[in-house]
Amino acid sequence: MVITSLQFLIFTAVSLLIYWKLPKRFQWMLLLADSLVFYFVNCRAYTFLYVIGAVGAVYAATCVFVRTRAKGAGEEERSQRARKVALVLALLSNLALLAVLKYSNLGIHTVNTIAQLGGGKRPLLHEVHFPAPLAISFYTLSLLSYLIDCYWGSAEPERNPLKVLLFTMYFPLMVSGPISRYREIGGQLFEEHRFDYDRVASGLRRAGWGFAKKCVVADRLSYLNDQLFLFPDIYSGIWVLGAAVLYSVQLYFDFSGCMDIVLGISECFGIRLSENFKAPFFSVSIQEIWQRWHVALGSWLNDYLLYPLMKTKPMACLSERLRKKYGKRGRHLATYPALLVLWSAMGLWHGDSWKYILGEGWWFFFVIVCGQLLAPVFATWKKKLHIRETHPVWIAFQRCRTVLLFGIGMIFFRADSYPAALHMLGRLFVPTGIVSPLRTLYYAAWEDFGGWPVLAAVVILFVLQMMADAKVYRRESAQTKVKALHPVLRWSLYLALIFTTIFLGAYGRSSFIYFGF
Amino acid sequence: MRKMILKVSLLSLFVLGVVGGINYIADPANLFGEALVREMTTHLLQGEIVQSPGDYDEGLLQKEMLTGQEPPETVIVGSSSILYVPWEYPSCYVAGVSGAFLRDYLAVIGILDASDRLPKRIVLGIDPWILKRDNGIGRHTSIAGYADYEIAQSEDYGPKPERAEGSQPHGPEASHRKPKRDGGRIAGESTKSRLDRVWELFSFAYFQSSIRFLQQNGLAECLKSPQERTRVMTEEEARQIPSLLPGGGHTALPHYDMAQNDGTALSAIDDKNLPGMGDEFRKVDERNRSLLEQELAYLKARGTEVEIYLPTLYPVLYEYVKGSEDYAGVTETEALLRELGKTYEIPVHGSFDPERSGTQSGDFADWLHVDGDAAIREYLELVE
What we know:
The structure holds two protein chains of two kinds.
Chain A: H1 6-21, H2 27-42, H3 48-67, H4 76-117, H5 136-152, H6 161-169, H7 173-176, H8 182-190, H9 197-230, H10 238-268, H11 286-292, H12 295-310, H13 313-326, H14 328-350, H15 354-373, H16 375-384, H17 392-414, H18 418-426, H19 435-449, H20 451-473, H21 480-484, H22 487-504
Helix pairs in contact in A: 1-2, 2-6, 3-4, 3-5, 3-6, 4-5, 9-10, 9-19, 9-20, 9-22, 10-17, 12-14, 13-14, 14-15, 15-16, 15-17, 17-18
Chain B: H1 2-26, H2 34-45, E1 49-51, H3 58-67, E2 74-78, E3 92-96, H4 102-114, E4 121-125, H5 144-153, E5 181-182, E6 185-186, H6 191-201, H7 204-222, H8 226-229, E7 232-233, H9 235-240, E8 243-244, H10 258-270, H11 286-301, E9 305-310, H12 315-322, H13 328-343, E10 348-350, H14 354-357, H15 372-381
Parallel strand pairs in B: 2-3, 2-4, 4-9, 9-10
Antiparallel strand pairs in B: 1-7, 1-8, 5-6
Helix pairs in contact in B: 1-7, 2-3, 3-4, 4-5
């Protein structure tokens, strides 16, 4: 049941009707029932056992946290040890499950590659195929954040295991996240909600917009990108940069379209999820774009990986040693190993292939080398060239540069493998002109793409999204102007959007790209 | 809240009304055009050749044809790979449905069985992928109930079907119920297909096809009656224009040159999207294997002669699959079918392997179909 399908729309509509008619204290139970239905329709039934196992391990650990809380002074040490053991066991069991179900083949490929480098002709190990639960990468991180927050005392452990199950499996999140924190949505999931016309209308508008972004822009662009990435020998030189940017746009509209649908539907249920995108294409540096793109993942890794890692004894010692040697700069240098771990984890999260890690490595290079090590050099140049940081041309240049560099990293994500990505990047320096590849692209993909009407719709939707993002960048609401329109004009726009999506959207093309993670 | 429900309902009704209305009127795949299929059947049963309307309910056509005539001596069951072959059996009907899964094969046999029309001989044209794990529902949903019927009929024969790991039960649980039979018609046979048709009626993808169909053919064409839309062909015309023969076969298989076929096959390999197999077919699905075996055992027990035909895979494709672990199921399927052939004394004709069957790229009309003459030669010359 894809969330852009008619079946899902009917499922959601019926759920909403029942939700708002139910006695308020049963609303969370309906959400849980909906989530279970959604899960079993989209995934093999027996994989639910993995979810139960994960939730069970975390629930058991939080029970230990509760039991060891109010202890006397004498039992402090034992309690602390028990809490640590419970935390570690729950962490390890969830991470082990994720590692086995999702990353076994990465290990196998790595071993086979090493064996082949050592002269072996046949692969040592064979690939395995474990059907994984739906959204395992997303819910595992959500569950672990709940576990760690309970350990730290920043969240109150939930006594009802069904509520923990709902937090883990809340159905809009089971598509492509966002990775949620218990302290942000836990209360909302279980509290009683009253019907609010404006909020539901806003949610429906947002979901409809997301639908259009996914079906009209992302899925149509995929026809072009399929060609550009499948035949890098034809589309070389500047076409590689074009592919990089075009895929970034496709991915943005795909993922943010999904987020709009998810957040919109949640809003209809009275649950406000956190934003996952904050106008990323308006960023002026790689560092900034990763603070605006897939925000939930970045902040999760910061809070639960980077900062705890920085506080460990070895890192603290390293920081002290480097500070003594290099002064203030030394402190910055000490963060690099931890940042390397963070960026590697980010790559690993995306999939069981070295290409994701290499892609993240590309961005890591720019964050560290250009963003920090060479920052004084760039500052000197800017001064000599009298470049004003706030000049619109300079800002526009930075934004274009950032999108290009971001897109080049995305080549690793889109290519079939890292050798394919490297080959494609190598073709960047082999110009093939513009006209001949354009003609080839036209014959290969123009009809599937949908021709001029689709191109016009893609451009219009892109411009509208950038206008909305400009507002988001300034921390304003993107829906204010729409709400302020005359009802006739507003409803005309709704109908135009709906029929544009129906006439020009691509259906049956693909699931959401991040669904695969 | 009432205001919200009213607005959303009105908007949904309007949108779905437009979509459903256009889908119903244009109906490019003739999903709602049972009358058209019945009109075609009337002409075919009179021995006339009829122009193929392109998309139509093939399952329904087979049901009407098989129940509308005296049972022939031989019925050929399979996918489009058997439709263009000039079979040489004296009394023969070709009951092929394109893109068939295993349950479509069982459905066609079920139609014959449920109407007491099991022929003397059944030839099964088995594609390399039909033993891949599938979704447990045949592609031709209007006759899906007959597959359930046939599975229930054959449950006591051969090995008991084992459920593959993690799969849902397919069709009625054999130990619990058999579909009710009423004069050859299976109760509930069209319920599933009715639901599928409702989804298609409001499908946005189908809406886009409908709009294209309307643009190409005009509204007048869409509003024609089934009688006006059914065109009887002469033999001469049928050689040039895709048509349906009274004996069940099809004509005018489009031919493409070898370079184009090679290119299409290589493109499918690059995309890792092989026909019927998708991105992988690593091993034979145990449940499908059991279903096929029990059906073979059942037919033999009923005294029906069975022959198996293995249509050759396009050489470029076969070269790829035989060396690929991801598609090991293809060679496993052939080995299994030959083993079943020995166990149940069933002749096995042809081979998926073009080298073994002596078929070359030039013998193919397109990258999926062997030319009819080459296919019949392969069928007659290579038999174990």
